[in-house]
Amino acid sequence: MGIPRYDAEAVLQQGRLADLAIRLIRDGRERVLHCWGRNGPERELALASQVPDGVLPVFLGNGLGVAVEKLAHTGPVAVVDREDALLRAGNSRVLPERIPGVRRFSGPVESVLRQIRQWSRELGRMPHVVPLPFYLRLDPSYYRALASAMSSEHVVPADRRYAGPQSPEGLRESSGVPAWSRYPRFVSRLPRVLLLTKEYFLYREIQTALKRLGVSFATVSVGESERMQADFVRNFLETVARFQPDFVLTVNHFGLDREGKVAEQLHAGRLPLASWFVDSPELILHDWPGLDLPNVAVFSFDAASVPGLQKQGYAYAGYLPLATDPERFHPNSPTRRDLWSNVTFVGESLTDRVRGLAARLGNETLAQMLEKQGKAFAKSPARSPMLFLRETAPDLASKVEGLDREARLAAVSLLTFAGSRWYRLAAVSGLSEFSPLVIGDAHWPELLPAEGVRFAPRIDYYEELPGVYVGSGVNFNCTSAQMKGAVNQRVFDVPACGAFLLTDQASQLAELLEPGREIAVYEEVEDIPDSVRRWLTDGSRRRSVAQRARKRVLAQHTYEHRLQRLLQTMRQTFTNLA
Fold first, then answer.
1. pTM for the complete prediction?
2. Is residue 154 a part of any domain in this protein?
3. Composition of the chain by helix, strand, coil, percent to 5
4. Measured between alpha carbons, how far is 324 from 233 in angstroms, rounded to an integer?
5. pLDDT per residue over 174-209, tens digit each?
């Protein structure tokens, strides 16, 4: 299915190309979208500045052409762009076909991947993907598919390149440490990192932080399905052999299979693995044995989950909270007037998540019983869904324990997200008298009173959400029931924008930001109206709190801070492993 029909036109400032606009026709309605918005050339050039030396840049979208033109002065550049209307509307001088050393690709995904990989082998340069966000939104089935499928790798220095076999068959040996893993580790000042990636909110932040820290890294996509892709192990082993990382980094165990094939390869090669849990470790590791190996370190955004992880026998288990990227979330973020509001909540109603888990469970009666228990679980201090059921509903717990592994996971997840849905609806309902703006899925209008509440559809986390925070008097936050004391990224993103946040009193919040001085809190759902009313009437105090919070966040809570700590921990833990 193709993208809707659109017309493109150039946006000029003082006779120079400043942006590209399209008039998109969808369902008979016209909508105007911009490639960049404000400061287009500067923002596009910033992408070029983050591309490391010695790679083959692969731009997903030509954009204004200025970043492609700049990098073409240093070497070959690939551009994947099939938007002929946008190319015609732009500056003809910077069309890919007119810049020496630049090749444009526009065919089917698999064909483009094959051609670019062939060209990169001929050049001896690893492909490094540079996605332009506008193109990912314009045609996600094409450009996002390419972004997730391609590895973005740095070239291995000549003195560290592996000259042996380049396939899994040749990489394995009958005994001892495999050939692909025989190289020194942690010998440079900064470690080399192999990142297992998929389309998930944290990966862009991790890669940006690694680049700012000057860390060499390569990426291997694990694919978007829950099942392991057929060629993943091959791509992974080949990349290890070529890139020779000091350790592998993943999020939420992405890329690890329950059968333990990847973990077995890592263990055999004595290659350290760091897994950063940014969602509930209890849910992710539910019925997932056999990963407590001496080469595995786990980091959790939830301090309360660490003791349980330590008992499982990992080489290291520690607390690593979420953070923010102040280059994306900042006070000068462009705002949309139609999204200005005194009080704003951004988030899903979780209705689709609950319905999907109920369908996966495949037992309507059991699903209804678990959904009814959701409220009690959300109000309970219990962390483990199964322990909660055993203590409060033993008959229901027995039914869940009798399910197979996948059904048990669906059941405990359903309980957790049903609790989160109840709590979120109760909390957001407390905003009704303040004419709030609620941004999220299409179910919100069915759940909240229509009178006085404004609704807006989902927005882009990176491109539009910072402006929403800046344009709101009180940004409201309520934490998911799966977090049980931990804090989400909004606690850092909103202050980074210089904006004011009112959030629930999470037990781990005080170690990160000082309640009342750097962040405003409410203790119970019933307290929400009074808290909002009090802060809305005191703009001066709101601004003071927001300013202090931003100063603290920039000093202590960016993703660069988190990655520095992770890198240091991996070096200290595994220097002698190989």
1. 0.72
2. no
3. 45, 15, 40
4. 32
5. 345 677 777 889 988 889 999 998 878 788 899 999
